[in-house]
Write a structure and sequence with these properties.
By secondary structure, the chain is of the alpha/beta class. It is built from 36 helices and 30 strands. The strands form nine sheets. Strands 16, 17, 18, 19, 20, 23, 24 and 25 form an eight-stranded mixed β-sheet that branches. It has a seven-stranded parallel β-sheet with strand order 5-6-4-7-14-3-15, sandwiched between helices. A three-stranded antiparallel β-sheet has the order 26-29-30, with no helix packed on it. Strand 27 and strand 28 form a beta hairpin. Helix 15 packs antiparallel against helix 16 and helix 32 runs antiparallel to helix 34. The longest helix is centred in the C-terminal third of the chain and has 48 residues. It is flat.
Length: 1078
């Protein structure tokens, strides 16, 4: 209230921002008046003029940066490279000359902004009436930027989120900052939510860009990794979906040569529907994966039947508990009733009998009070807890809000009556302590005992994870709500957009569990080859902006994660839409009946109606009810996504009824047809059920069938009506059975409905109820934000490691002295560590076995260290031994480069890439396994995130040590082999056509005329590409992997990744097939 009062007196933050940029708008208008009188050629020449100014002002600094980069690439001295690096990017990587260049360019673009924006607007004006081909249809250009669109364009250029209402022309607004930021020639990106919008907008807005001399491309029109994709990224303006941009980044960090990369540095991007991309889709990371075998896939099908029986048993138990609670209520024993009903909710929160019981007056309040008592009871010592046996009667316990589940002791016995310990994880720390303290076990026996315990823990952990994922699939994930089944595949339905997400799979085995539940083929286990979250990908851009109709409610998250501020842009015309208070019913059936009646009334008046739902299931239920009532309707949900543009085009026509998930059709406007704008008289029921006469407003009418857990989704649905000053109305129909009301509805709503004595068939509407629902939504938004933040906290651990590995890959791809410097460091550290590990166990240098040391270095690295030889000077300290070993390793490295001669740099790069990719892939697999099981640490009162950080760090240290050792081993032993050319095939009989056109043999003694200047040669014209052996999988110098021929080819089996498919073709992992004995 206080903030509203201050806003009324001093104006809102957005009002003050509008005043701040008013002078820029005035200057744009002045430039526009000047440009309106220039010739066509002069207007089109503006782009060349701007680029000339930018080039002249940045030329000296650009040349200095380029010279330093080349100098750094060719400088052999590590200290010299470090000094140059500090000049380029500063000690923290964010300063230096590169920062000076960014600041200079930023100020220069700000200076050019008024004239550049005026140029784009004048180009749009002159194109009026011209034709452009847009998604196969000839479209007339009829748009010119108006003032509020200029305001939006300025905010996008400044790197903010422009919140603009539906129908305000965000697509056109983006042309202004895209043009300005494309002028330096570094690329400007427009990120969309789907491929249709990317293609449409690139062709539609490309009409203006092409007129001004800029090149435009769409990623979705090209194939990944192709020359066309490379050219698309090198266009001035590039459109594409967030998936294409993200996956191209991952693919670029899997290539083996620079010319295979397609992306340029990430400079400027505008994200369309920014809340959908950066918040909704950010929950699912981008993953490129490959098969690793399918040993566990059968386990999902094996345990699915048992879990199905477990769920049925839980349902029966919940029904018994509800019946017991109902009897206790009849007997007046409220305490026993509350306890029984609370237990039923723990075990089966969606039980229909339970939901019906909770609708009775005062019952929901009793259960909520019981929940608070249980929470308080958990805080006292276990011996004094009153409800410590609360879960004993249940087979498993569900947390519907947190989407988690765990087996109880009774559930474990149900799954395996003969062996209670089959699904109980051993206390590994206690067991290891017992083994270490065992007085009668030898060191070898202790090691073997530990190995057995760790193996049992891993086996049971995997089995328990499968059981838990199957329980989640059966109890929490519903068909046609969370997913759909099409063509024998389980497709995830995005809960915010209502669209299917082909290619996306739930992690941690959940997707396989859902596949087993639905009886479709359980897809093979996959291993992550490369991954990044949406958050970390878009944080790589120097400047990021976004636009949407709904961002203000998520402003805190945008700022904390991306550093993005939200600027609310005023509408071009005042919004006159009538947003009415929610109507609340006791049951879902009553709500649906009211929706049917309201839709019939509005349809009878000829007004278009859009019914918003939160799931595929709800949309199909309403469709059946509408059909029974004689209402013709179109349904738009995840199953009919391909018809989206067609259905949305008809949604605003006279008498149309459209049922759609809340976000369906996002990015396309519903335009009103003829005869739907005027108001018409009608009769409606007031809260007391009496019919009254009203004048119903025209336009599109929004009927919401359920409140979404996020306020911005509801705002997005409301915003479909009332675009550009059109009339319209919106109203939500709710019930106490709705998920939001059931899970997060406040106590105040339950008390209010009990106090008002709502009966079956009656509905309530009151501003207090609407505000209470919004408070519940705020709590859910906070919970979802914390969940996404937690995901980012986990990925930040991997992201730091990913940056190190990807930087090493960049050195390998670019070559030069930097690569040699990193390689020498690896050799020195690998040799030094091996020497230290062998010597540190001895108390005195006199005890060192230098002969064994010399032999070990020779076997692994083909390395001879003079001080370890019989005639060498014996080192006195471990440090001295390390230093001399490192020096010998450096000498051997240079000798190997000299031996490889002209191929040295190329072989070095390929060996480095081979080692990095192989080890990083195995590391990602280990991180996946750690991430899947780390949650169980919470049972031991430990923070899983802290545990994950500690273990991931330890694993990364081991990874780098393994990379150093493997690279040194492979490079110092690498050999180039030239394959002998295959013997020439026997010459086929030579034939020719004679003068009569008849084929005849050519006599052997006759010499064919092969033409002048073509002497016969016995030598091969093309020299064969040498093979690189001893450096992992056999490759040619061109980077191609040589496949084994009949199992006896040149592949080096000893270096096949342990989680790779075995090359023998068995379908098993290498570690469980030919690598089992290694």
């Amino acid at each position: 209230m206080f903030n509203k009062l201050l806003g009324a007196i001093f104006g809102t933050r957005h009002d003050r921002e509008l005043k701040r940029i008013r002078p820029i708008l005035v200057e744009i208008e002045e430039q526009g008046r000047r440009l309106s009188s220039v010739s066509e050629e002069e207007l089109r020449a503006q782009t060349a003029k701007f680029r000339g100014i930018i080039a002249a002002r940045t030329e000296a600094l650009t040349a200095q940066i380029a010279a330093l980069k080349e100098q750094k690439r060719t400088t052999a001295d590590a200290a010299g490279r470090e000094e140059i690096d500090n000049q380029l990017s500063g000690a923290d990587g964010k300063g230096g000359l590169e920062a000076d260049f960014r600041i200079l360019l930023r100020d220069l673009l700000d200076e050019l902004l008024p004239e550049a924006f005026a140029t784009v607007r004048e180009a749009a004006r002159r194109l009026l009436g011209t034709k452009a081909m847009v998604t196969g249809h000839e479209t007339e250009w009829n748009m010119v930027h108006y003032e509020v669109q200029l305001v939006g364009g300025i905010q996008l250029h400044l790197g903010k989120i422009a919140e603009m209402a539906t129908g305000e022309g965000k697509t056109l607004v983006a042309t202004l900052p895209l043009y300005l930021n494309a002028l330096p020639g570094r690329g400007a990106h427009l990120v969309t939510v789907n491929s249709y919008l990317a293609r449409r907008d690139s062709q539609w807005m490309g009409h203006v860009f092409a007129y001004l001399g800029l090149t435009v491309a769409c990623l979705d029109d090209t194939e990944p990794g192709s020359m066309e994709r490379h050219a698309a990224y090198h266009a001035d303006v590039t459109y594409g979906t967030n998936n294409e941009f993200g996956f191209d980044y991952l693919r670029d960090n899997m290539v083996v040569s620079l010319d295979q990369r397609v992306q340029r540095p990430h400079v400027y991007a505008i994200v369309d529907e920014v809340d959908s991309v950066l918040i909704d889709e950010a929950r699912t990371p981008l993953i490129i994966s490959g098969p690793v075998g399918n040993e566990s896939d059968g386990a999902y099908a094996e345990f699915n039947a048992a879990v199905s029986r477990l769920v049925r048993g839980q349902t029966e138990k919940a029904n018994d508990l509800v019946a017991r609670g109902e009897k206790a209520l009849e007997a007046g024993d409220e305490a026993a009733a509350a306890l029984a009903l609370y237990q039923a909710r723990l075990g089966n929160p969606k039980n229909k009998r339970l939901l019906k019981a909770l609708q009775e007056q005062g019952v929901k309040m009793l259960v909520q009070k019981q929940e608070l008592e249980v929470i308080a009871d958990r805080k006292v010592p276990a011996s004094k807890q009153q409800f410590r046996d609360l879960e004993d009667d249940l087979l498993f316990v569900l947390d519907e809000r947190g989407h988690s589940v765990h087996l109880t002791d009774r559930g474990i016995d149900f799954m395996n009556p003969a062996d209670h310990e089959a699904f109980v994880l051993p206390d590994i720390s206690t067991e290891v302590h017992r083994i270490e303290r065992h007085p009668e076990m030898s060191a070898a026996e202790k090691l073997e005992a530990r190995r057995v315990i760790e193996g049992q823990y891993a086996l049971k952990s995997e089995k328990l994870n499968i059981i838990h994922q199957l329980l989640r699939a059966h109890s929490l994930y519903e068909k046609d709500v969370n997913y759909v089944v099409q063509d024998g595949q389980v497709l995830i339905v995005d809960e915010f957009t209502g669209r299917t997400m082909p290619g996306r799979r739930w992690s941690e085995g959940l997707h396989q569990a859902v596949e087993a539940k639905e009886g479709v083929q359980v897809k093979g286990e996959t291993q992550t080859l490369a991954t990044i979250t949406i958050q970390n990908y878009f944080r790589m851009y120097e400047k990021l902006a976004g636009m949407t109709g709904t961002a203000e409610t998520e402003e805190t998250e945008f700022f904390q994660i991306y550093g993005l501020e939200v600027a609310v842009i005023p509408t071009n015309q005042p919004v006159i839409r009538d947003d009415r208070h929610d109507l609340v019913f006791k049951t879902r059936r009553e709500k649906y009946n009211a929706i049917v009646e309201e839709t019939q009334r509005l349809n009878g008046l000829g007004f278009p109606v859009l019914v918003g739902t939160t799931s595929v299931e709800a949309s199909e239920t309403l469709s059946r009810l509408f059909t029974r009532a004689g209402l013709k309707q179109q349904v738009l949900n995840a199953k009919y996504h391909q018809r989206e543009a067609e259905i949305i085009a008809l949604a605003g026509q006279f008498g149309s009824v459209t049922i759609a998930t809340n976000m369906a059709g996002r990015g396309t406007d519903i335009k009103l047809g003829a005869g739907v704008l005027p108001s018409k008289p009608s009769r409606v029921k007031d809260p007391d059920g009496k019919e009254i006469d009203v004048m119903e407003c025209g336009g599109l009418h929004i009927v919401g069938s359920e409140r979404h857990e996020s306020r911005r989704i509801d705002r997005q649905l409301r915003g479909r009506a009332g675009r550009q000053g059109d009339p319209g109305a919106s109203q939500f129909f709710l019930s106490l059975e709705d998920d939001l009301m059931r899970l997060f509805g406040s106590d105040r709503i339950a008390r209010l409905m009990d106090r008002l004595g709502a009966q079956d068939g009656e509905m309530l509407t009151h501003p207090l109820i609407t505000r209470s629902i919004e408070q519940a939504q705020k709590r859910v938004e906070l919970q979802n934000f914390q969940s996404r933040k937690r995901l980012l906290d986990y990925d930040d651990v991997m992201n730091q490691q990913r940056e190190v590995i990807y930087n090493l890959r960049a050195f390998a791809l670019e070559g030069g002295e930097e690569l040699k410097g990193e390689a020498i460091k690896m050799v020195e550290q690998a040799v030094g560590k091996r020497i230290e590990m062998m010597l540190i166990a001895f108390d005195s240098s006199l005890d060192w076995d230098l002969e064994l040391m010399s032999q070990d270095l020779l076997v692994h690295y083909l390395l001879t260290v003079p001080c370890f030889e019989p005639d060498g000077t014996r080192p006195q300290t471990v440090k001295d031994a390390r230093d001399q070993g490192g020096a010998a390793g450096t000498a051997a490295f240079h000798a190997k480069l000299d031996q490889l001669a002209d191929h040295g740099a190329q072989v070095l790069a390929l060996v480095m890439l081979n080692v990095l990719d192989e080890k990083w892939k195995d590391h990602l697999y280990d991180l996946d396994q750690l991430r899947n099981s780390i949650g169980y640490r919470a049972w031991g009162q430990k923070d899983p995130l802290l545990e994950y950080k500690q273990e991931a760090y330890t694993m990364f240290v081991d990874l780098m040590s393994d990379i150093h050792h493997t690279f040194t081993e492979r490079f110092l032993r690498v050999q180039l082999v030239y394959e002998q050319p295959a013997p020439p095939a026997a010459p086929e009989p030579r034939r020719r056509f004679n003068a009569l056109g008849v084929a005849e043999d050519v006599p052997e003694d006759e010499v064919l005329d092969i033409g002048p200047g073509e002497p016969l040669s016995d030598e091969a014209v093309v020299k064969s590409d040498p093979l690189i052996l001893g450096a992992g999988r056999a490759r040619t110098l061109g980077g191609a992997v040589v496949a084994p021929a009949g199992g006896t080819g040149l592949t080096d089996w000893s270096t096949v990744g342990r989680n790779d498919p075995c090359p023998c073709g068995s379908g098993k992992k290498y570690k469980k097939c030919h690598g089992a004995s290694l």
